[in-house]
Amino acid sequence: QVQLVESGGGLVQPGGSLRLSCKASGFFISSHGMSWYRQAPGKERELVAHIAEITSMTIYGDSVKGRFTISRDNAKNTVYLQMNSLKPEDTGVYYCQDATRDYWGQGTQVTVSS
Predict the structure, then answer these.
(1) Which H or E element spans position 96?
(2) At residue 60, what are phi and psi to the nearest 5 degrees?
(3) For residues 26-50, average pLDDT
(4) Phi, then psi, of 66 in degrees rounded to 5
(5) Rounded-to-integer distance, Cα 21 and Cα 5, Å
(6) Is 8 exposed, middle or buried (0-12, 13-18, 19+ CB in 10 A)?
(7) Is residue 54's pLDDT more than 90?
(8) Number of other CB atoms surrounding residue 112 within 10 Å
(9) Residue 31, SS3 per DSSP
(10) Cα dihedral angle (65, 106, 34, 9), rounded to 10 degrees?
């Protein structure tokens, strides 16, 4: 059974950092493209970052370039999103996606506020 479980969200002050984790089960992330999306209240879900299978080439949304880093640990079957220099506009629910088969996790809330 395919499952994606996100963790690591929470409340952080502007300028702070968080690291999100996405633990996969039922498949190996090394052979799948993996993505992070986010959705702010009243807004559409948007792509934050993507890491390709095999090559690990990465793509980032314009609003997070230079601040966020996507990575994966194949041995742990886990994808990470390191978020630095967080801004209030980064607030939202962050979702992990198996881009190859379009499976989604349940999301984790990130709130950036003073």
Answers:
(1) strand 92-98
(2) -130, 150
(3) 96
(4) 85, -10
(5) 8
(6) middle
(7) no
(8) 19
(9) helix
(10) 40
pLDDT at 7 over 90: yes
How far is residue 101 from each of residues 2, 31, 32, measured CA to CA in Å? 10, 11, 8
Cβ-proximal residues to 72 (8 Å cutoff; 6+ apart), any chain = 29, 30, 34, 51, 56, 78, 79, 80
pLDDT tens digits for range 55-112? 889 999 999 999 999 999 999 999 999 999 999 999 999 999 999 999 999 999 999 9
What the block records as the tokens of 67 is 């601040």
Cβ atoms within 10 Å of 79's Cβ, excluding its own? 28
Look at residues 72, 70, 97, 98 and name the one whose alpha carbon lies nearest to residue 84. Answer: 70
Amino acid symbol at 40 = A
The residues, ordered by sequence, that sit 6+ positions from 31 with a Cβ below 8 Å of its Cβ are 53, 54, 100
**85 contacts 98 by C-beta, under 8 angstroms:** no
Q: What amino acid occupies position 113?
A: S
pLDDT confidence of residue 85 = 98
Contact 20, 5 (CB under 8 A): no
